[in-house]
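Example record

The entry below shows one chain as it appears in the dataset: sequence first, then structure tokens.
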Amino acid sequence: MRTEKHFTGTHSSRTNCIRKSVALIISLLIAVPAFCLEIPSNGKKQKEAPAILAPYTTVKDSVWTNHNWEIHNDTIFTNQYEVKKIITSYDLIPDTIWQNEYVYSTKYDTVFHYDYIAKDPAYNYTGKIKMSKPFSFFRPSEVLNKPRVGLVTGFIGGLYVGANAWWSGAWYSKYDRTKFHFFNDWGEWNQMDKIAHAYSCYLETKWTYDLYKWAGVKEKHAIWIGMLMGNMWQLSIEINDGFQKKWGFSWPDVSMNITGSLLFGLQQYLWHDQRIQMKISAFPTNYSKYDDPQIKARTDKLYGTSFGEILLKDYNSLTFWWSVAPGAFIRNPNSKFPKWLQFSFGYGAGGMLGGYKNVWSKNDLGGDEDLTNVDPADIIDRSDIQRLHRFYFSFDIDWTKLPVKRHWAKGLMKVLNVIKLPAPAIEFNDNRHGSKVAWHWLKF
């Protein structure tokens, strides 16, 4: 139970420090997009190039013919507009060949009639080289759309403020605070927590990039905004952790956050594509298999019982994947290798009943308190349960490479790419008491 000393002036100063840190990060969330959009890369103000509002322009052409002016439209295409050749009709032309004076044969030559239509279904071909471009909310803007930039920035800022309010009220308020400090948790949870940081920052970077690309921000600017904002999200968590007695500001966490954002940013900068994608899969662990009520009580308190709690806390139930698309590395345009097929390499863990070891106090089922001064009679030691490292190889699908035309459907494919598709997998582990290889007909 908290006592009155937790609400002294020292606590207020810590709270004010956290609030100032959060306010600084919110200011950066607003300032970073504006900085990337307004300041040229060389630091000098440059004259803006004229914006291309459409992949084609229509120019009126006047011709004097037969004592009359004829005015018609000429369509000039830019390199943004791509067309494909289609067959509209064909004619069969008979070709008669006399074999002799009594016998002849007739063959038919096929003459095809072609036309051109837009590859992008958003441009509707009318048959007179005129396209109508309907406005679509889900379609990314081809030029900088400032209202969309404002909408995205406001949405992210509001989400950030709401998330911080939730962290402070529903999470951090349950634990004792102390002065800001650092700690090294690299070995905790068999490094699953570190990979989770890389995955979270990869995802936050990717989604921020997608939102600003939807708003018409240039590629390199959207990449930088995504990477900076992804790390800002994670940095606010580290700052809060730094004031918690149970945790601390973790440099290993920060390094993995940067790694996750770089995994996205470097690929997008070099290839303009995500050929190596981070994904996640989850399936609840059955702790009843140990047939021990103390273990069941420990896991219920430590990891929770709902699927949402398990997804956030139970690293025994999670697997992180790196899905690689070999087809994306094949340069031959005639290659039949499917672009959507991915090979997946996964990492998971098992048998973990604590951050570092399977020993805990029965009076602290939900924590990893220092057991130095705990009565030995209150200590539960299940070191006999091995803490496993698990490595997987499986198959996956890159949903964004499927032939989807609707822009809202393309957005849905990006959301589906967050999760590893359940598929057969082979597992390699460091089990000391059994087989080191296992086969899963369907690995979640």
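Notes for this example: Residues 9-38 form the longest helix (30 residues). DSSP finds eight helices and 14 strands in the chain.
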